[in-house]
Specification:
C8orf32 fold; 8 helices; four-stranded antiparallel β-sheet; 17 strands; 20% helix; Immunoglobulin-like; alpha+beta; 357 residues
């Protein structure tokens, strides 16, 4: 049963930690994919996620270590910078493609005050048309639109409406790692799967959240990155990926949230040998039990132990892949002779980092 303290909860003011300055963390990072090229391959093309740069994420010393000389940094349809590598008639074998860089990441703090915002005007609705629309896996179906109306009611303020949807998601959706024997994630991060199954991973959670908020007229975007997890510092393994949300509130701007990780800290489950590691590694700094303050924190804040790889869904890469628009770019997209090469079989990713301070 979901953590009942959140039924009907609306507390826009966050925990007292808001009064402190945003935390920062410095890392040195190596992001690598190992690509296995089969015999007889004629054309290898790789689009690899690069760390983005913004006010929260400063990247320096970016170095590309490519086994193939033909590479360039391009920009995709969402404005993300991407590493593109191509090789004609590559020899059979396994090839490491790596980037290294130094990263200074700042915690994203926001104390969204409902009274400071307002509904979107016509110009904003036009400007954020993409962030208000559905796509392949964020589906604005009649069912989702009706549900959004039930959750939000007559509320027009985007901050209040976004919080209502946050609380509804916490009450009704469970992260799959809580009970891995009976729950699972979708393959692509699907709003429809999440709504029907009431479970999923971070992309399922945030696809549904995006569908509900967009249905309520709130511009929403999904950000893909990775946690720089404390317990995996210095370890040479695939750190997977993580995604979170930003919604737009006029007069305030883009406000972050992470309802998927917040769901872990509800604590409405038992730790077992089967889920202990999964639960721990679903967070940035581990899990020691329920933490209502963190559930509050993740509406308006995300911690500094993250790296941002890309923003958006249904991304059109440059040059264009044979596959057309891709679902998202949290790691890489690889094609061999015009066919999408599957992760784990044709390529594997490793993310290694060390915190400097």
């Amino acid at each position: 049963m979901k953590f009942q303290a959140f039924a009907g909860l609306f507390a826009i003011a966050l925990c007292a930690c808001q009064s402190t300055s945003a935390r920062k963390a410095d890392f040195t990072v190596k992001n690598q994919i190992d690509i296995t090229v089969p015999a007889g391959a004629q054309d290898l093309r790789v689009w690899m996620a690069l760390p983005q740069e913004d006010s929260l994420q400063q990247v320096s010393g970016l170095h590309v270590d490519s086994p193939f000389p033909n590479w360039q940094i391009t920009t995709d349809s969402e404005g993300n910078r991407v590493l593109f590598v191509e090789a004609k008639s590559p020899k059979e074998g396994t090839y490491p493609l790596a980037t290294t860089f130094d990263l200074v990441r700042t915690e994203h703090r926001h104390a969204p005050k409902a009274e400071k915002s307002r509904p979107l005007n016509d110009e904003e609705k036009k400007r954020f048309e993409r962030e208000l629309s559905g796509n392949a896996n964020v589906v604005l179906s009649t069912e989702v639109r009706d549900l959004s109306k039930q959750i939000v009611g007559s509320e027009q303020n985007p901050v209040i409406a976004a919080r209502k949807i946050y609380d509804w998601t916490l009450r009704n959706i469970d992260y799959w790692v809580k009970a891995p024997a009976t729950k699972k994630a979708s393959a692509f991060g699907s709003s429809e799967y999440c709504l029907s199954s009431k479970t999923g991973n971070c992309t399922d959670f945030h696809s549904l959240y995006a569908a509900l908020t967009r249905s309520a007229g709130i511009p929403t975007r999904i950000l893909y990155g990775s946690f720089l997890k404390q317990e995996l510092d210095g370890k040479d393994v695939d750190q997977s990926y993580h995604c979170w949300i930003e919604f737009y509130a006029p007069e305030i701007g883009w406000i972050p949230l992470d309802v998927a990780v917040a769901d872990i800290f509800l604590g409405d489950f038992d730790l077992t040998p089967e889920n202990d590691e999964l639960v721990r590694r679903t967070t940035a700094a581990g899990y020691t039990g329920p933490d209502p303050a963190l559930v509050e924190y993740y509406f308006g804040n995300v911690e500094e132990r993250r790296v941002l790889w890309s923003v958006g869904r249904d991304i059109v890469l440059e040059p264009k892949p044979a596959a057309g628009a891709i679902n998202a770019l949290p790691k890489a997209h690889v094609e061999i002779d015009g066919q999408t090469a599957a992760e784990k079989t044709a390529w594997k990713r490793k993310l290694t980092y060390t915190q400097l301070q």
